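Memo to structure team: turn this sequence into structure tokens by end of day. - J.P.
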Amino acid sequence: MTSRDDWAAAPRPNSHNSLSGNVYGPTVQAGAIHGDVYFQNAGPRPPHVTPRQLPSLTRHFTGRVNTLEALTGFHRTDGQTLAVISGPPGVGKTSLALAWLHAHEAEFPDGQLYVDLLGSSAAVPASAGSALQLFLHALGVGAEQVPADLAGKAALYRSVTAGRRIAVLCDNALSAAQVRPLIPASPGSMCMVTSRWRLTSLTLDGAHLLPLEPLDTDTAVELFWRVAGQTTPGGREDAAARQAVASYGRFPLAVCVGAALLALRSDWQIRQLVAGDADGLHMVLADEETSMRTCFDESYEALPAGAAALYMRLGLHPLPDFAAEVTHAVAAATPEVADLPGAVGALMEANLLTAAVPGRYRFHDLIHQHAGTRAQAGLSGDAVREVKRRIAEHYLATADRADRSLSQHRLRPEPRYEHAITSVVEFGGQAEAMEWFDAERANLMTVLEGAAADGWDDVVWQLADAMWLLFTHRHHHADWVASYTLGSASAEACGHVLGEARLRTGLGTALRASGSPQSAMEEFTRARELRRRLEDRRGEGVVLNHMALAYRDLGQMEQALSLLREALALRGGEGDLRGAGRIHCSIGEIESLLGAHASAVAHLEEAWRLIRDLGDTASEALVERVLGEALLRAGDVASARAHLVSALALLRVWGTGAEQGAVHEAIGQSYELAGDLAEARNRYRSAEAAYLSVGALEHAQRAAERAQVP
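Reply from structure team:
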């Protein structure tokens, strides 16, 4: 997070400082710092809105009147409510939860949160910590504000949700431990949990347990005819429908799939559907998983050839949710699916694939598992490998495009592919690119881990390298460390020295951001050795720059300055104007904090001279801000304000609310020092609003207190 100081004088020599206890986020140790230290994090952040994250409700939801009334009875306005809907797969747990929550949206004016805990669809279920990270971001908390440990995240979540009337849907929970940290404590809030397991231990937390049974026969028949797209007939057809839904065990999912099969096969009558019992369609089995699979098999076998091929290939996608471009990637495998729109349409008509939002598709968990099983049984080993490789390369190509949309100044090697890329996402700007990274992070991580398991080292290190700006902007520290650890090892296994140097530099940066400076130094040292092996002076300067920042974070300013000067000699000597400019900026900031004002301003003016014509808005804003702060410390209030105003204008193009808040706050102090208290108050209020827009609550409070100047 950004923090401001009161524009410090130099610390006294021979000072001592120590650090103990639990610390969240970046840390600076120094003999004395009078004023704030700013940690740069340039990156677009969308404005905060009240979260409404619930998936849409299926238009065929039918019945469940008594259970909906029970949920209404559970809900309290004078305390929090916890309800656990449990039952076998396909019984309609999520649909019931969504039906109630959508109907009662007005009762939760502060938002509705949703997370799929992957308790039934992933080898490794989602952790409570990762869910809290998503919830806190949705509630407006900046990523840099979120503690690294579960206890810290949970405590912050309780603070942020205090006094807010929100609803939380924890879908597909595996255990009570996943759920407990996600329960909001504010009066009037509702936490609804769906699970294949009863999770009875949550009764200790006051949970209402609601075991869900299959539909009654009349409701199941009504659902059947709705999905089949026919009015309810009488006589023999109605009797056949009753026989059909009985054969499906009256499970809503099975009923929907069977009815969609009837709608898909216009030449069938319902009596033929029921007659399929002799061929294995019979659904009244003790094992509902098996009964679902039997029904899915029937739907699969009714698909056109192209749709069946697409179904199997999409089953090899690691998670059930994916963008439309993935269908293009897998359709291009041998033999190519010629009519892709027709194949997708057939899957959707059969209720095997849904489009929750435009441009994205989703399998039900059981259907995804079934598609994967059919792929393993119906495709050769070479065909499975080709599809999985095309999926991985699709994510690599799109991540590469998003990375280059976010920054034109990263000198990253062009990725290399085994297959031609058939569908490339075009981004309309930096915000769209970052939105894609945010939406696809789970898929990116799962694909990267799968590529590592398959031994595709070239994909692993290139994909990790392309995710750099996602991690530097969003601070997903655990994913950052995990992906760059795999990427470093994969680049080494490939013998790609440049790739390994880049990934070890990135791993060191991730470890530094995660609070492990000694481990970071080990990675930086290895990266420097690799750059020297390549005789890459500019790259060595990059590594030294990162090492210097680690020393700065630890408050070891002289060591930081020494490395920065060495880095400047390397990068400046190679004609790297941007790199040299940013190093001058770092030197100037540290010297300003140490009280060497004249030298600091000289370095910062040189940084501006080097960067101003490069078209790098983020770097320009950084230099203008740091120069303004340095001039303010030096007592040149008028010049300081001019640079700060310029920085603010640049940050409106590229910058977070935290950065804008910091500049407003500094401008406010310049007016306060000049005696214009009315304008100072206005600027402090602007700083408060900017901080609040990204959930920087502590800094917003400080700005609000400063706005009370008499």
